[in-house]
Design goal:
The chain has 396 residues and is α/β, with parallel strands linked by helices. Helices cover 50% and strands 13% of the residues. The structure holds flavin-adenine dinucleotide. Keywords: FAD, Flavoprotein, Oxidoreductase, Proline metabolism.
Amino acid sequence: MSSKLFLKPALAILNVVTNSKSALFNPDRNFVLNKLLRWTVYDHFCAGTNREEVSKTVAEIKKIGYQGVILGYSKEIVLDPNEKLAHDDTGSTTYSNKCYEMVEEWKKGTLETLSMVGPGDFLAVKLTGAGPIAVDSMADRNPIPESVANAVDEICQAAKDQGSRLWLDAEQQVLQHGLDDWAIEIMRRHNRSNAPLVYNTIQGYLKGSKANADRHITLAAQEGWSLGIKLVRGAYIEHETRSLIHDTKEETDRSYDQIANMMLCRTMPDDAKDLKFPNAALFLATHNAASAAKAIATHQARLLSHQPTVLLECGQIQGMADELSCELVQNYERALSDSSAANVSVPKAFKCMAWGSVAECMQYLHRRAIENKGAVERTQHMVTALRQELRRRVFG
Ligand SMILES: Cc1cc2nc3c(=O)[nH]c(=O)nc-3n(C[C@H](O)[C@H](O)[C@H](O)COP(=O)(O)OP(=O)(O)OC[C@H]3O[C@@H](n4cnc5c(N)ncnc54)[C@H](O)[C@@H]3O)c2cc1C
């Protein structure tokens, strides 16, 4: 990553390994490739290939001082298009049994992932993982199919029983409108106490993100459920219809900060000013230190002046923005050791991680590698600081 010379070919190789169907390029079947990938990217970005490895990583993360983790299962179940449809007795086309088995398999994998996190932690849920029954219905903006709804209910109940929470990952716009409708329906059903169990993701880079946040807030206020929002900037800029996304990075930054501010200040949208802001919680999922600092300052200021706000928590992806994560951990620990009670309200810091075999994590790893192309330049100030600290410890 630090060598411009190696970066381009390394990304090209990762691309081939990620998309190849050949056994030679399958890291779960090729021992040497497996070791190479684990050594270079997998161990940096992923939690582990099985329960034992994941538990060890989660324990290490918590030992550093993080107050929690978010865990997602990377396996993307791929179905042969020829196996998707079947014909029933009347001759009409239905989904094949294989499609229903995929929903079950997805539920089992998600429940297994849930069992690897603890109370207060989050489960990251990818609804598209349930296969064509979920994806087709989401794309057509239809209600949640019964088989998927039953699986989701079971997952939500298990998370609640365990004292954990869950969030729904955001997708590209072709799916996201349907996904938002489903997320609202799931929150309506399961967010019945003051603190939300289920969070939906809002992508600040979309021109429509403020209106989407307004819609979530208004519905929660009208119908009396609690609202969980995980706020991201958005990861699909290279694949999304560009006109849907803010024209500049600065506009995305402003949009992100505006939505965070609206939640933290409990501001009702203009056309719903007569309603009371609902019970709500905000999860800031960002690597942007300026956005995190702004939101935390607003949160603190409101708490110190006894103005109402919402629960605020922050998180970064494993292997990324550790300088920001560690600063958040340090602030939290400082606040805990401070005797002034008002200071104890700093947000908890989380690390978000994925687990699965090396082959199952390849799509995830490829996305991380692309996202980190500019990381070396972005974190140059950290390298300088680390070198200075090393010198101080050796010679100081
Ligand atoms: C814990 C966690 C969970 C996440 N979950 C999801 C998820 O479910 N779905 C999802 O889509 N993403 C998700 N992301 C990724 C996220 O959307 C961002 O891609 C990533 O975090 C980088 O954005 P940033 O806020 O860290 O800040 P920065 O690094 O400051 O911003 C980079 C982002 O700015 C935006 N941007 C860049 N250039 C432009 C431009 N020219 N015009 C307009 N906008 C621009 C893009 O969104 C880009 O990703 C998650 C991130 C984290 C930390």
